[in-house]
Write a structure and sequence with these properties.
single chain; 139 residues; Rossmann fold; six-stranded mixed sheet; 5 helices; globular
């Protein structure tokens, strides 16, 4: 378990390969935030954005087709929320890594995300460097 200095609440760590470009899927219903995340991850040499979705049902289908290593998802979305998405992604592919990036700081959301199988939980107020570090940590 890892508790960061600001808003990194939880992470599980796995071994990572230094020569691999990680495949990322972004799931966020706000276009401007999704675009910002795409820009941030794309500026890093370790990551490749392979898919993006505005809600969980589309994300689940895209994850099956694109096989991302990591999904960064919001929790509050229309149709299928992030908690349901996390559980469905983990059922579909237990090796997939998921980071929840959210505004929800209360225990109810954190515990629900952990129960669903989330690998990392960050608040949207997190610094860019913490997000990248967190992504590398869970991968």
């Amino acid at each position: 378990m890892f508790f960061g200095p600001h808003s990194a609440l939880y992470f599980s760590q796995t071994e990572r390969s230094m020569d691999k470009k990680y495949r990322i899927m972004l799931v966020e219903d706000h276009a401007i935030i999704r675009e910002g995340l795409r820009s941030l991850f794309s500026s890093e040499g370790d990551f490749e954005i392979v898919a993006e979705a505005e809600e969980g049902r589309t994300a689940l289908r895209l994850a099956e087709n694109h096989r991302p290593d990591l999904v960064v998802t919001d929790l509050s979305m229309p149709q299928m929320d992030g908690i349901e998405l996390i559980a469905a992604l983990k059922k579909q592919n237990p090796k997939i890594r998921v980071i929840a990036l959210t505004v929800h700081r209360n225990d109810e959301y954190v515990l629900a995300a952990l129960k669903a199988g989330v690998d990392g939980y960050l608040l949207k107020e997190v610094h860019y460097s913490e997000l990248i570090s967190s992504a590398l940590t869970v991968l």
